[in-house]
Amino acid sequence: MSKKPIIVFEGIEGSGKTSHIKNVEKYLKKNNKKFIKIREPGGSKNSERIRKLILDNKSTFNNTTDLLLYLAARSENISLLKKHYKKK
Prior knowledge:
By secondary structure, the protein is mainly α. The protein has three helices and no strands. It is globular.
């Protein structure tokens, strides 16, 4: 099985993550590389719904609920990644 890279950008708000992601995306498209782009929370249809729920209600959830929502979004992204890598 060939190894497929996962590129991750982390940083505080305003640190340039979005700009770097756009540049990498342009490069990959220009070089005909297949890729998927996800974010956390978010990235898939269900994860985006969870993201909206988290961000719209941030102050109303207790810590456990907040954690479980983030984990649910991550679970959706893991499923998406598994499907993507099985196709290759």
